[in-house]
Amino acid sequence: PTLKFLVGTGRPILLTAHSTMDAGRDHDMLKKIICEDGRSLDYDVNPYASRMEFVDPFSSPSESQVHVVRPNHSYLMLH
Fold it and tell me: Residue 20 — φ and ψ, nearest 5°?
């Protein structure tokens, strides 16, 4: 309900993701919830993102690679 309300205000909304994988998850969720009008939900790489990297504590132990995240890795501006 909050995202639909915020989009309904008509004001721009800045969303960030901590990795490409995180942005993909957000994209899929946003598409289901608020993307009824065909608006773009493509994240862009944030040139001002933190350069510190962390291992995602929610990575599945079965994944073949460690999922590394960076705060504010990418962003999406919803209009």
Answer: -65, -40
- Report how far apart, in Å, the C-alpha atoms of 2 and of each of 24, 33, 34 are: 20, 10, 11
- Full-model pTM: 0.77
10 Å CB burial of residue 30 (0-12, 13-18, 19+) is middle
43-75 per-position pLDDT tens digit: 999 999 989 998 887 777 666 677 888 999 999
68 within 8 A of 53, measured Cβ to Cβ: yes
Q: How many other C-beta atoms can be found within 10 angstroms of the C-beta atom of residue 74?
A: 20
Give all strands (DSSP E) within 8-73, no chain letters: 13-17, 44-45, 54-55, 68-69
